[in-house]
Amino acid sequence: MGWTISWEEFVSYTADFMTVSEEICDGWVWQGDKERSGSAYIVKKIQLQMPADTYDCKQETNENCDDLSVVEFEESHSVAVAESADLECTWEYHVLYSISYATPVLYFNAFYRDGRLLPLEVIWKRHGTETEALQHMRWEALSQQEHPILRRPFYQLHPCKTAEFLSHHLGSSLNPVVTWLSSIGRTVGLHLDNEYSKLVNKNV
Amino acid sequence: MANDREVLREIWDGRVPVCFQLDSSEVNGLQAPDPYYLMVPRLSYFPLVTDKVRRHFQRYIHPDKHDAEMWVDFNGQPLKWHYPIGVLFDLHIPEISLPWCLTIHFDKFPEAELLHCSSREAVESYFMSCIKEADVLKHRSQVVSNMQKKDHNQLWLGLQNDKFDQFWAVNRKLMEVGSDETFKYIPFRLYQGDEPFIQRLVKPVTEEGQRKTLFQFLQEIYAENASKVKVTTHGVEPPSDTPLQWMSEHLSYPDNFLHLCVAF
């Protein structure tokens, strides 16, 4: 079927990841209960600049959107016109263990400054599943799911291909969590520092 | 194998009487709409059965909200549409008198609590992800992986159109057992109030090779408290000596999970 890992292995690989994170002050933290299978995960929050045209005006009147643009302009003290100003959004990444798939799973959310979620359409666009050829696959790749521990809506990169993906690295990776996260994370705005590669390579 | 067809049919035909009412603060105009009464399938999902409800109430709300995302609450609590209707009902049984009175909203979608549901594709996506997860547990994903796309479509269409034979023509493959006559693990979720549902790896047989009963399963989860646990699924409490493998074959929802509501 592919390369699967036990919960104990997930905790061990992730602990190594956390050691590097602390060394380089990368900001990941453990959450939850490591003593209960599947009940702990790691979290990181970052600010990302998003193109202004990703702002979702659907749930606001035009007037409110205009007001927000003005506020954005004033706060940035920029000479650029309001329409081209980037929006700063908070992205929150959670790496969980899937008991069913026996693999790591990435859950995440992205928020506008006013606290509203970025819509799925915007997430897909960034993920690259917006292109015509991949339209039919986008629902299978990335969608909203219930966070198994927090019980709140989160976006999830579907884990059904993870074990197969990892099996390609079975002989070459010493840390499947890092290998997996460095590959899929970048599709949703998460780029791992090169320092993590020392956990993966057998040569070092 | 899911051989007991009468049980499968009874489960499939389960219905819940619902009275839908529009949130009074969203009525636009002098005339409040009549409630909308509907018998809804336990095994389905609210977004799949509420097209007529939406059209009924749409005429009474502000035109700006006609295309807004609809959501449902019971006693002020938003209902998670991605749970099958029967599960939502079982979770609230102590508070419900029939018909089940639910409030419809078109405003202030609570996105911190509910998954967005912009189209039926969202329901299909969620449903199929559950089917895949269940098969990973039962058959290491081998059955779902070997299915053709048209089989996946048939599962979805059978559910969406409430067609038992169409659905079970494909689903019987997902209920197949190998030479050992059991699944590898039992797909289940245990719900207890507002806590995170419990989902673990549970084999259908004991280490001695005996078929586990519901009670033995509960002992695995609740240890010495197992005898105090009352389990409800599909609105009934299965006897504690019911074999777990049989339950998984016959009492699972179409997503192939046993959704068990627990009370003490």
TrEMBL record, chain A:
<dbReference type="GO" id="GO:0032446">
    <property type="term" value="P:protein modification by small protein conjugation"/>
</dbReference>
<dbReference type="GO" id="GO:0061651">
    <property type="term" value="F:Atg12 conjugating enzyme activity"/>
</dbReference>
<dbReference type="GO" id="GO:0000422">
    <property type="term" value="P:autophagy of mitochondrion"/>
</dbReference>
<keyword id="KW-0072">Autophagy</keyword>
<keyword id="KW-0808">Transferase</keyword>
<dbReference type="GO" id="GO:0000045">
    <property type="term" value="P:autophagosome assembly"/>
</dbReference>
<dbReference type="Pfam" id="PF03987">
    <property type="entry name" value="Autophagy_act_C"/>
</dbReference>
<dbReference type="GO" id="GO:0005829">
    <property type="term" value="C:cytosol"/>
</dbReference>
<keyword id="KW-0833">Ubl conjugation pathway</keyword>
<protein>
    <recommendedName>
        <fullName>Ubiquitin-like-conjugating enzyme ATG10</fullName>
    </recommendedName>
</protein>
<dbReference type="InterPro" id="IPR007135">
    <property type="entry name" value="Atg3/Atg10"/>
</dbReference>
<comment type="similarity">
    <text>Belongs to the ATG10 family.</text>
</comment>
From TrEMBL, chain B:
<dbReference type="InterPro" id="IPR048940">
    <property type="entry name" value="ATG5_HBR"/>
</dbReference>
<keyword id="KW-0963">Cytoplasm</keyword>
<feature type="domain" description="Autophagy protein ATG5 UblA">
    <location>
        <begin position="11"/>
        <end position="106"/>
    </location>
</feature>
<dbReference type="GO" id="GO:0000045">
    <property type="term" value="P:autophagosome assembly"/>
</dbReference>
<dbReference type="InterPro" id="IPR007239">
    <property type="entry name" value="Atg5"/>
</dbReference>
<dbReference type="GO" id="GO:0043069">
    <property type="term" value="P:negative regulation of programmed cell death"/>
</dbReference>
<dbReference type="Pfam" id="PF20638">
    <property type="entry name" value="ATG5_UblA"/>
</dbReference>
<keyword id="KW-0472">Membrane</keyword>
<comment type="function">
    <text>Involved in autophagic vesicle formation.</text>
</comment>
<protein>
    <recommendedName>
        <fullName>Autophagy protein 5</fullName>
    </recommendedName>
</protein>
<dbReference type="Pfam" id="PF20637">
    <property type="entry name" value="ATG5_HBR"/>
</dbReference>
<dbReference type="GO" id="GO:0006915">
    <property type="term" value="P:apoptotic process"/>
</dbReference>
<dbReference type="GO" id="GO:0061908">
    <property type="term" value="C:phagophore"/>
</dbReference>
<comment type="similarity">
    <text>Belongs to the ATG5 family.</text>
</comment>
<dbReference type="Pfam" id="PF04106">
    <property type="entry name" value="ATG5_UblB"/>
</dbReference>
<dbReference type="GO" id="GO:0034045">
    <property type="term" value="C:phagophore assembly site membrane"/>
</dbReference>
<dbReference type="GO" id="GO:0034274">
    <property type="term" value="C:Atg12-Atg5-Atg16 complex"/>
</dbReference>
<dbReference type="GO" id="GO:0006995">
    <property type="term" value="P:cellular response to nitrogen starvation"/>
</dbReference>
<keyword id="KW-0832">Ubl conjugation</keyword>
<dbReference type="GO" id="GO:0000422">
    <property type="term" value="P:autophagy of mitochondrion"/>
</dbReference>
<comment type="function">
    <text>May play an important role in the apoptotic process, possibly within the modified cytoskeleton. Its expression is a relatively late event in the apoptotic process, occurring downstream of caspase activity. Plays a crucial role in IFN-gamma-induced autophagic cell death by interacting with FADD.</text>
</comment>
<comment type="subunit">
    <text>Forms a conjugate with ATG12. Part of the minor complex composed of 4 sets of ATG12-ATG5 and ATG16L1 (400 kDa); this complex interacts with ATG3 leading to disruption of ATG7 interaction and promotion of ATG8-like proteins lipidation. Forms an 800-kDa complex composed of ATG12-ATG5 and ATG16L2. The ATG12-ATG5 conjugate interacts with RAB33A; this interaction is bridged by ATG16L1 and promotes ATG12-ATG5-ATG16L1 complex recruitment to phagophores. Interacts with TECPR1; the interaction is direct and does not take place when ATG16L1 is associated with the ATG5-ATG12 conjugate.</text>
</comment>
